[in-house]
Each structure stands twice: as structure tokens, then as C-alpha cells.
UniProtKB/TrEMBL annotation:
The keyword Signal does not apply. Gene3D superfamilies: Actin, Chain A, domain 4. The keyword Oxidoreductase does not apply. This is Heat shock protein 70. Belongs to the heat shock protein 70 family.
Length: 85
């Protein structure tokens, strides 16, 4: 989103990436108890501020492939142990 809005790629800047990951982790935790949250980072990269909001539904949509892939080992383990869900 930052790259799309500002035409700047911050992936090569470890400090900016760390700040973004920290803010996203905080947003993820907030979404556990709220339906929407915002991410605000002052001077994220080259003096450019970042602001975005995300809903729990959008977060789940973005992570759905990851959620599904975590179920595969669980289902295999259940099959191997001859147990059912």
C-alpha cells in the first residue's frame, strides 16, 4: 500500500520494515477484540508518514491462504493418529 500510494519501495530499509511490522503486529492484536483498527507511522520512509485502516474481515481475507495451510499438518496428524475432527 505504501509503495502504491507513494511510488517508493521501503523493503530495502530494515528500520522502516521493522517499524511497519511492529505497527502491523499491534493492529493484528487490536483486531482480536475490535472489528477495525488503524495503522499510523510518522516518517516511515524518507520523511513520508503512513496511515491506513483495516477491518477484521479484510485481515482475515488477506491471511486466508495462511490459515488454510496451517490446517494441512493438523489434518495429517489427525489422519495419522486415526482420530477425527
Amino acid at each position: 500500500e505504501f509503495k502504491r500510494k507513494n511510488k517508493k519501495d521501503l523493503t530495502g530499509n530494515p528500520r522502516s520494515m521493522r517499524r511497519l511490522r511492529t505497527a502491523c503486529e499491534r493492529a493484528k492484536r487490536t483486531l482480536s477484540s475490535s472489528t477495525q483498527t488503524s495503522i499510523e507511522i510518522d516518517s516511515l520512509f524518507e520523511g513520508i508518514d503512513f496511515f491506513s485502516s483495516i477491518t477484521r474481515a479484510r485481515f482475515e481475507e488477506l491471511c486466508m491462504d495462511l490459515f488454510r495451510s496451517t490446517m494441512e499438518p493438523v489434518e495429517k496428524c489427525l489422519r495419522d493418529s486415526k482420530m477425527s475432527k
